[in-house]
Amino acid sequence: MQKPFKKRGAIFISLALVILGLRAPVSAGAEQPNTGLALTLPEALTLALDKNKDIQKAKEYRNLVEGRYVEERAAALPQLAGRAGISRDRDESQAAYNKFFPVERETRNAGIGLNQVIYTFGQVDAAIRAAKIGLKTADDQLKISQQAVIKDVSAAFYDVLLAKELYKLAQENLEQKKRNHEESKKKAALGVGTDFDVLVSRVAMENARPEVIRTANLIQQSRMKFAFQMGLSSEKV
């Protein structure tokens, strides 16, 4: 009566081992990726506000609009212009009459002018108002970009911390499963445990390995996202 049971138990163990072989990851010893810069959240936000690509584009756009505003406003201001010149010529044909007509002649001139726009049918005023509205819009866009970056960087920062904690928990869970497996093998060797207990503990141990690899990859992905939000390469974070 016991032989069929033993045979079925052996078949079950063999199938379980085959399944474990299929589920075992290629790199079972996944390690947490090495980190680069160690940043606090305020440091990360300061760095992002300086390096983020969206903020840099918003700043450049504001500089462009500000230059346009200054240009339009300058059109309504008095335009002061000055000029000066000197010319020198020589006529050798006058050498015979040098006493009466000099061979060389030098001419100097200078002038200064002031232009002021008096009336342009409201064209200059309208251009200044439009440029001022454009400057205010550029300021608003810059503030929106900064607020969006602060939100995204903060979320990415905590995603990295969460991924590291999940990796730590997965590692601790795997180590606990390893200890349980070793304990079950010792009990089986002493005759107080069964081969089935050993198999169950091994299945639990192998099932814990993929979570370690998944959380290690999650750290790498969250670091890449965090670096992108700050405008840095992932190797620097």
Description:
- The chain has a domain of 37 residues.
- Helix content is 67%, strand content 10%.
- Strands 1-2 form a two-stranded antiparallel ribbon.
- α1 packs parallel to α5.
- The N terminus is likely disordered.
Brief overview, please?
With 237 residues, the chain is mainly alpha-helical. The chain is built from five helices and two strands.
How do the helices and strands line up, and which of them pair or pack?
Layout (H helix, E strand, L loop, with lengths): L1 H22 L17 H11 L1 H22 L4 E12 L13 E12 L7 H68 L4 H36 L7
Antiparallel strand pairs: 1-2
**Strands in their spatial order, largest beta sheet:** 1-2
Shape field: elongated
The profile of the biggest β sheet is: 2 strands, antiparallel
- The multimeric state of the shown protein is single chain
The portion of residues assigned to helices is 55-70%
What's the end-to-end separation, in Å?
A: 65 Å
Uncertain runs with pLDDT below 50, 5 residues or more?
1-30
Taken as a percent bin, the fraction of beta residues is 5-15%
| Overall number of strands | 2
Number of helices: 5
Overall pLDDT, averaged?
80
Radius of gyration: 40 Å
In N-to-C order, the SSE pattern is: HHHEEHH
Q: Structural class from helices and strands?
A: mainly alpha
